[in-house]
Amino acid sequence: MHEHETGHPVPGSGVRMGNLAPSASGRAVPTPGGGDHFGEAPHERRHGAAGLVQRRISAHAHPKRAYEVHFGARDVVVKRRALNTQSARQGGGLRGNITQFSKASARRLKLTARNLTGLRVMLTLTYPGKFPDDGKIVKDHWRRMRQWLARQGCDVGLWFLEFQRRGAPHFHAFMRNPVPATKVAMAWFKIVGSGNVAHLKAGTRVEWLRKPDAAGAYASKYASKIHQKEVPQEFGNVGRFWGTWGRPEIWNVYWLAWETGKAFVRSVRRAYEHQRKTWTHAKRWKDSGIWGFTAYETGAAAWQLLRWFDSETALPP
Fold first, then answer.
1. Residue 21 forms beta bridges with which residues?
2. Taking the CA of residue 137 as centre, how many other CA atoms within 13 Å lie in the half-sphere pointing to its CB?
3. 135-145 average pLDDT score
4. Of 50, 106, 136, 230, which is most buried by a Cβ count within 10 Å?
5. How many whole angstroms separate alpha carbon 48 and alpha carbon 46?
6. pLDDT, tens digit (0-9, with 9 covering 90-100), for 18-41
7. Nearest of 107, 117, 115 to residue 302 by alpha carbon
């Protein structure tokens, strides 16, 4: 990770666990023929007359599996992965048209905001009385504003889109570095082509966040305001409701062999359960079964566990 501005330990790229080793890109990958469901031969059955060998591969054989663990500054995401191509989840493909703010998108926004460190400034951008009703025009305005912010030194940040009661879109952005409010107001005024002096004075707002983790709280509050995510009927091409810019490094991803990773994942679950006991309010926690779970506020503890498990396996550095 390029930079971390919190006091939490940050994973490095040279750790190896179980039968895994870091690839050239820094991510750990399974080493072939290492056992623990890696490199094993398919299930064989032999029977028949003398001199004849019939070989079958069972359709019900357990797939080769591994743990994919995402370490963030505050949280940990554990995913159980099937490594054979038939049962593994396949990503990629063309993105469909976005028409609403989904629960899955809200969950990803919360995780991103909680683990993107160093966000200290919040920027609000609104439109004047006359505003565009095409999302492509709105996103082009935001793209130009984002480029302007990058030239001012705000090259990393998080943004999300909302709708006011009058149907006008507006943006909230979280950044690491401050920008003079007068410069922001003039830049946004020119980009949207307002021409309204009142909008020049009240169309933008720059605020300092009081706490270092306030961006996560704001994102949670934003995700809960469903009425501001409802797209007006006359508004088209809404596109994405949130995103980041500057390609920030948020997660360190490690792959753990199935057998050697079981004890580590079990310890992460216990640490998370212990952490939850200290919370005044906590919703019921569920492990999503075969695909994994998210452990909030367990990032530092999980990283310490990873270092301890690595030393116990006595692997070379």
1. 29
2. 12
3. 96
4. 106
5. 7
6. 444 333 434 444 433 343 333 333
7. 115
